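Summary for the steering committee. One of the milestones for this cycle was to obtain a three-dimensional model of the protein with zinc ion bound, which we needed before selecting residues for the alanine scan. The sequence and ligand used are listed below.
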Amino acid sequence: MSDTLLSSLEQHFGFNQFRQGQQQTIEQLLNNQSSLAIFPTGSGKSLCYQLTALHLPNLTLVVSPLLALMKDQISFLNTKGIYAASLDSSQTAEQSHTVMADVRSGKVKILMVSVERFKNERFREFINQIAISMLVVDEAHCISEWGHNFRPDYLKLPRYRDELNIPLVLLLTATATKKVKRDMSERFAIAPECIVQTGFYRANLDLSVLSVKTAEKASTLAKIVRDQQGPGIVYVTLQHTAEQVAEALSRQGLHAVAYHAGLEDTLRYNIQDDFMAGKINVVVATIAFGMGVDKSDIRFVIHYDLPKSIENYSQEIGRAGRDGQSSQCFTLANLDGLNTVENFVYGDTPELNGIEFVINDIRQHQDQQQQWEMQEYSLSSDSNIRQLALKTLLVQLEMQGAITPLYAYYADFKYKFLEDKAALLSHFDAARQEFLNLIFSHTQFKKIWGTLNFDTLTQTAQVDRKRVVAALDYLAEKNLIALETKRITQVYQVHSHVISNPELAQQLHAYFVGKEQAEIKRIGALIRFFELRTCLSYNLARYFDDNQAPQQCGHCSVCRGQAVTLEYSLAHHFADDAVIYQKVDELISHLASKGINNLGIETQCRFLAGMSVPLFARNKVRQLSGFGLCEQQRYSEIKAKLLAR
Ligand SMILES: [Zn+2]
């Protein structure tokens, strides 16, 4: 088989040899063995499915978390003459119809989608009719609740695989601890011998951890950057730090640009392009930078703030030196930023009463067919649960069998005529004209734009909602109207015997608390890693279950005899208890005046820690002087204080 594979590799991709791990993975797959491939980023993971797909009879379905990554892979495949396509939210109805037709006819070999696509009933109906040879899950560690980038919707992939009868699975990831590896492979029934892992150890990365006081960080950074040759990335935690640090470097004559999620898309793309093209030397970025940046000659990566976890650290330093040339990685570490990193975790745990609110909403607002509708934004606001945590909660309700997603629709349809109404109608026969007139008569026009009133239309005129949507879609496609849709509404089937379980809220809350504790432990492990007294490279490789690395790498700060202990460098004391309690009382009476009572202790802690939750945004809580009073303190300490009250 290996000869055939090699000539296929050469013929389709123009490479004359496989990189480490690729051949074994492909051979297993062609032998009908589902596999898990763990290769460092930039070492050719994608080729494993790309070449395999060409030798399989039916479609290969790839689930990928990021649109930009999909687009890159699709254009790469298309340059090789392989028809790959995606179904995604950036497409027009016409484009997705073409893709769907080409998938049906077998022209498309590889189809890429996001995991969210499966929530769409129309997509599920479509993909159900397609014969699929292989399911590929990119960034597969997202499926593990023990992973660092858990995405709740990924938990449903094993079920989709069963429903769609997909015989073969390939999971791809760059980082996985032993636990995550076991978790991933069990969920997809992958045999232990089908896990292919290449070495994690990188001989060309020099790792240094420096214990630096906050006041000295900026000057230390400038000194390090000045000594470097070639392009590099400086990672920070917060958006405004990115701006400040880039400015400070620029003032010192070191050309640096800030990059974070708060910038406009076009600006972000330009920065990426300029960095790739070598026009920008240093990018100061939050973790939003890096996915999709495949630059092989990055000479240094500096962590100005603590990374979020060992997994994040390894992924971020892994962007340096992909060309195999020696590259430097520095971490400027102290404990001042610990509370900031921890707050990301604490802010995402819903309170018990928030979970109860959601469950009660489902119980009380389901209709006669036991269907329940929700809009993420307003439910998040009403339940005081952040949107990501709300998504996790809904998936957990789904996994418990309490709800099943049916379909999504837009609550608001607005349109305007692009052609005179009479002229527009003249394109259609009498029956269709009558139907369109019905739609138009249930639309309230203000000047130019009209808002469709679905309720009166479907109730009084007894027409099918789907037919109305299809008609408007058609008019928009033909450029007869401009259509705007807003407020996506998700509809679920409710299963009363599960949702009525009185213990349900408690169980789900326990799940979230367990997750929170695991995340906090992960941060503890990161601190211990930086304070190690034995080789950093060796321990990093071991953390990811690679025991082949040398015990003393000779190119880390510990091997050079410079192990550190991390310390607090900023004043770290609380305001007086009396002041703290008084500010909390102000919060309580402020919210009571708006009819909100029984504040949980977590809400009080979040207020003092200066964290954003939907309840605060809605009630202008940020204006109170106590907001963020204890933002320098760790959440667990704030909580202990309030519990002692
Ligand atoms: Zn070492």
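Key point for the committee: The first helix runs from residue 2 to 13.
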